[in-house]
Design a protein that fits this description.
By secondary structure, this protein is of the alpha+beta class. The protein has 16 helices and 20 strands. It has three domains: 232 residues, Dipeptide-binding Protein, Domain 3 (Dipeptide-binding Protein, domain 3); 139 residues, D-Maltodextrin-Binding Protein, domain 2; 128 residues, Alpha-Beta Complex (Dipeptide-binding Protein, domain 1). Strands 1, 8, 9, 10, 11, 12, 13, 14, 15, 16, 17 and 18 form a twelve-stranded mixed beta sheet that branches. It has a four-stranded antiparallel beta sheet with strand order 4-5-7-6, with helices on one face. Helix 1 runs antiparallel to helix 12 and helix 9 runs antiparallel to helix 11. The longest helix is centred in the last third of the chain and has 17 residues. It is globular.
């Protein structure tokens, strides 16, 4: 282990008040989440009519058309409905606002039958015309640059794929026509970002990102920036099987991991996420429960591929050779993250177990940096914990910084809180930046398409490769099976060779909760549906 890394790791451990790292057996992310057991035990917490969930940051916004982050998604999935939705514990698609669609033989036309009489929280009709309007605002030419997920979910005209038209022949019929067949489209209609149906009354008034109006199990009450978002049960919810079981839900924002743990142990909150390995014993020793499962995510560092020192693959290779990723992951995350060998999680088809990332070779890195004349670089990092990086960006950045120092490169770290950071990676100059991704739908396109996306909020390293993009389009139009799997394996191989990212780890989904809480689960897509969660008095 390098001296520089050991110093960085020691600083992290001291800051977090490290305890022994305990291992707990996890489940595969898209094959079933573990629910909190209905023990009925007495525990911490206040009013049984209120569930308080503590997360690491404010949402970026509350209109799914304008955000791309998990903190927003966790809140929004309780406010909005989607045409289709995922099963509560898997990525299997089931009916939502509509029944499963009829699909034409050519795979281009999807006809949805909507439930009758559904109302938005403001009393307006959630009918086919409303769904049409909610989708069409995200299609070209209405689409704006601040709609990060629109092209990801609904496609883009210049690619020859995506949504061509949306029609509402009557109140309960919606017809979506695609430009080209798309295997993941049906899964996209259940996603927590872009796909949720927003009341036209809200987005036409320009208030939907601050005062959201949906048709979901909970209604928006208030948003106190830096403090909390308050929701209340929708007593008129249309889905009798998913009626909210708790009157109030509060999403509280606590940036520091240790502070969230303290709040849970003191009974100030009922559920927390963003847990790192060092605090697990603190949670369980206090009598609280631990939720754990394998995550559907990737923690990575992106190179700036379009300008600067790392446009050359030789420079990117030198950087990757300088960092002992396996050592770093084991030291920082213990048993709660696995070393990434590809963009996709190891358990997710069609993950290619033969893919090899650049091997650690500090002497080769040092020689290459000297030959290339690279003596310094700048990294952008975030401070908050993320679902794919529970320790936060600063500790990870400092670990990488230590390895670079051993290779003769002085790396400056520029850090911001998560909300600010998302803007900075789009606007500021940098050489490398930390980022990550939580899968939205369990489809390989959802991971591999990131490096083909034209939107820099998705493709933060600005990677552009025509051959790669062509493979992505081919994968979209190919039916599930061996042929499609082979396409994505080719994509995985190209990423390993071109190194637009240095892939780091796949984190487990971890949450701590009071033993008073029953029915809690953390969905593989990283969201928390709270309508079925209760708390004993």
């Amino acid at each position: 282990m390098s001296k520089a890394f050991e110093i960085s790791r020691r600083r992290f451990v001291e800051a977090m008040g490290a305890a022994s790292v305990l291992g707990v057996v996890g489940l595969s992310g898209c094959t079933g989440a573990k629910r909190a057991s209905d023990t009925g035990e007495e525990g911490q917490g206040g009013n049984a009519d209120t569930i308080t969930f503590a997360q690491g940051a404010d949402p970026r916004g509350l209109d799914p058309a304008y955000v791309d982050d998990g903190e927003s998604a966790k809140i929004m999935c309780n406010i909005y409905d989607t045409l289709l939705r995922y099963d509560t514990q898997t990525c299997d698609v089931v009916p939502g606002l509509a029944d499963m669609p009829d699909i034409s033989e050519d795979g281009l036309t999807y006809t949805f039958k909507l439930h009758e009489g559904v109302k938005f929280h403001d009393g307006t009709d959630c009918n086919a015309a409303a769904v049409k309007a909610s989708i069409e605002r995200q299609l070209e030419p209405s689409r704006t640059e601040d709609m990060p997920y629109a092209s990801f979910v609904f496609g883009a005209e210049d690619t020859g794929a995506g949504v061509a038209s949306v029609e509402a022949p009557d109140d309960t019929t919606l017809v979506i026509t695609l430009r080209a067949a798309s295997t993941p489209f049906i899964k996209n209609m259940a996603m927590a970002l872009a796909a949720p149906v927003v009341a036209p009354s809200a987005f036409e008034a320009g208030t939907s990102n601050e005062s959201p109006v949906g048709s979901g199990p909970y209604k928006f009450v208030s948003w106190s920036k830096g403090e909390n978002v308050v929701l209340e049960a929708n007593e008129d919810y249309w889905d009798a099987e998913r009626m909210p079981q708790t009157k109030n839900v509060i999403f509280r924002f606590i940036a520091e991991n240790s502070s969230r743990v303290t709040a849970l142990n003191n009974g100030e909150v009922d559920i927390i996420d963003g847990i790192d390995a060092s605090v697990v014993p603190t949670i369980t020793d206090a009598g609280n429960e631990l939720f754990e499962e394998d995550g559907m995510n990737i923690n990575y560092m992106a190179f700036r591929n379009d300008e600067g020192q790392f446009t050359d693959v030789a420079a990117r290779k030198a950087f990757c050779q300088a960092v002992n990723v396996e050592e770093m992951v084991k030291s920082l995350y213990g048993d709660y993250a696995g070393v990434a060998t590809s963009v996709m999680p190891l358990w997710m088809a069609p993950y290619d177990e033969d893919i090899q990332q650049t091997a650690y070779d500090p002497e080769a890195a040092k020689a290459a940096f000297a030959e290339l004349g690279i003596t310094s670089c700048t990294m952008l990092a975030y401070t908050n914990p993320r679902p794919y990086n529970s320790i936060g960006g600063q500790a990870l950045a400092e670990a990488i910084q230590g390895y670079l120092a051993d290779a003769g490169v002085d790396m400056e770290i520029v850090s911001y809180d998560w909300t600010t950071y998302q803007t900075k990676v789009e606007t500021d100059k940098f050489d490398v930046c930390l980022y990550g991704w939580v899968g939205d739908n369990g489809d390989p396109d959802n991971f591999m398409n990131l490096l083909a996306d034209e939107n820099v909020s998705m493709n933060v390293g600005r990677f552009r490769n025509d051959e790669y993009n062509a493979l992505i389009q081919q994968g979209l139009a190919t039916e599930e099976g061996a042929e499609r799997d082979e396409i994505y394996k080719q994509c995985e191989q190209m990423v390993a060779e071109q190194m637009p990212w240095m892939v780091i780890s796949h984190a487990k989904n971890l949450a701590g909760y009071s033993p008073k809480v029953q029915g809690f689960y953390y969905h593989p897509t990283g969201v928390v549906h709270l309508e079925g969660v209760t708390k004993s008095a």
